[in-house]
Amino acid sequence: MSEELRIAPIAGHRLQARRSREGIWTQEKRQRFCDHLANSCNVVDALKAVGMGSSGAYRLRVRDPEFAEQWLSALRVGYDRLEGALLRRALHLTGEAAQDFPEDGAPFAEMTLAQAMDLLNKHRGTVTGGAFRAQAQATQMPSSEEVDRLIIDKIAIVRRQMRTRK
Predict the structure, then answer these.
(1) Which of 5, 20, 69, 136 stands the most exposed, by the fewest C-beta atoms within 10 Å?
(2) Hey, which bits of the chain come out as E strands?
């Protein structure tokens, strides 16, 4: 595995070149992950392809709205491709021509119909604007006024709880 040089500040010193750590989500890894996701509609396979773990990927998706949007776009492409592959398969089985649904991108990895349907079911809500979209919107940084309001509300709750206990 090739190492990438990064420029990084070291506390109290000037910027220095240093080798990146293996577990870092570089721009190249992010792009490879999204490319693989668009070709597979499978998050686990895409993570394996870049040698990264799921917890770090999901944390990055929450922290980085740009990556979250890239992930969502790649997932939509993969979802559409998988639907198209299943439709071509169904048309083939019925003896009808599937020329109206050409395959784009790399062929899908071999999977059963149940596995393909499972992937579609897992990602349906996400690609139609469900939970993932809500999570992406919720991860945007709140304004200082919103934070102040939340803190004041929490303090009020704690005070009420303390009065109730007395």
Answers:
(1) 5
(2) 5-9, 15-19
